[in-house]
Amino acid sequence: EYIERDSPTNMRFKRMFEEAPPPVTPGQEAVKNYADLLYAFNDLLGRSPIYDDAGGLSAMVGAVPYYALIARFCNTPSGFNAFADPVIDGFLRRMINDWHTFLVSSSSTYVLTENPEDGWFRPSALDAMIKTAGGDPQRQTFEDIYECDTSQPHYGFTNYDHFFIKELVETARVPDDPDNDNVIIMACSSNIHTLTYQGNNDAQRLQEESRFWIKETPYSLRHILGGDELTSRFVRGSLMQAMLSSLDYHGWRSPVNGRVVKTVLIPGTHYCGLVDPTSEDPDPISRSQDFVTAVSTRALIFIEAAPPVGLMVFVGVGLGEVSTCEIKV
Questions:
Q1: pTM score, two decimals?
Q2: Other beta carbons less than 10 A from residue 9's beta carbon
Q3: Eight-state DSSP code of residue 309
Q4: For 99-130, what is each residue's pLDDT tens digit?
Q5: What burial class does residue 213 get, using C-beta atoms within 10 Å of its C-beta: 0-12 exposed, 13-18 middle, 19+ buried?
Q6: pLDDT tens, position by position, 249-286
Q7: Among residues 65, 66, 90, 80, which one has the least CA distance to residue 15?
Q8: What 3-state DSSP class applies to 273?
Q9: Which residues touch 207 (CB under 8 Å, ≥6 apart)?
């Protein structure tokens, strides 16, 4: 109704189909206009994410089905403006919350089986999760790495969300030298995207404020940290940004020994990526890692660590339908 009633929004949702590249998945091909897109959204409300052996785009369709439909519009000017609209983003937030209601229900466990087509506990899916966790499928089992009970239905997971945020067993990820205050460990299972550190030539990438919407520009700390009063403490400091995949352990642990100074939760957009007319990447949000740190939902945890680290901040960034950032300290 809002799309029909509000003229600028109506224009954006129609023009993004004109500006978008050709569809590359069956789901995208079925969406001819924004009405089809809304019907497709509704259909997904009762479906759980699945694992696809094919990888690539197929894996994206299975793991983040809403984004898989939206992705081709995220690199268009009209699509960006549509998804940046606070009203539209509010609709998307409520839709994702409704989907989450399904994902925390017992009905969502239908994919937590050994079904050879889409089950998360079929051999290929288990092997992939073990490898992603740093294990060896030839020597280790899923229960060697994650807390579960394979004798129970669905391995003891009561819903899909319970499975998605599954806990590591205590011995699965023991940090090296945990009592060494000179060491900063990875806060979560992830792949490094950017590493800049104080004193190297890249330190200029960590500025108090910059035009973060332009490629190859410095990180804009004021936007990342939501204008927090501690922002200036991190200018030209060190930064490490990493990204989680759908198979990674989705939990965060303190990277240092220290005292939590404060926490902040910053609401943000769900599907805004950096528009780049020269890019043909079908996954524009993942391509926009620097950019999303300034616009997506963020969870900030400021920690005062012992010297030489001192004050540091962990920033958890939500992307797409995986935008829930829950702080527990």
A1: 0.88
A2: 18
A3: T
A4: 999 999 999 999 999 999 889 999 999 999 99
A5: middle
A6: 888 888 999 999 999 999 999 999 999 888 888 888 88
A7: 80
A8: coil
A9: 218, 219, 220, 221, 235, 236
